[in-house]
C-alpha cells in the first residue's frame, strides 16, 4: 500500500490518501434500522434535502422562483393520531410519526415562512419500511397570521415522496448512520 500526504498547510491539516482498494470494513453494507426510534432521527436529518430534490424535479422552469424550500424537519413524536386509530387497531405493525417542517416560499419580493405538520403512517415489510398513508396540515410561521389548514391526505406530496425515496436508499444501504 502506498500513502500520499498532501503538502502542509497553515489552514488545514494534512490529508492522508490511500492508493489501494478500500478495506472490507469501509465497504460493509449499512443496514436500515428496524426500530422506529432509531430510524426516524436519520430520516428527519436527511428529509429536507430529499424533499427539495422532489420539489425541484416536479416543477417547470417558470415555477422555480415560487417553489417552496424545505429548511428543516423537527423532532418526531410517536403519539397515535386519533383520526387513524381504527386503522392502527386493525394493523398492529402500523407506526405513526408526527413531525413538522419549516419551509420558505417566495411570494412576490418577500419570503414567506410556512410550518407544515406531517403524520406518516408506516409499516415494516419484507423489503423494509413502506408508507401506508400520509396527512399534512399547513400553517404560518412563527405566528399564526392565518389559521392552520385541515388535515389533507398527502401520500403523493413532496414530503411523502421524499420519505419513500429515503426508505429506498436506506434499504439499499446508501444512507449514512
Automatic annotation (TrEMBL):
The keyword Signal applies. Keywords: Signal. The keyword Signal applies. Residues 1-18 form the signal peptide. It comes from the Bacteria. This is Uncharacterized protein. It comes from Romeriopsis navalis LEGE 11480.
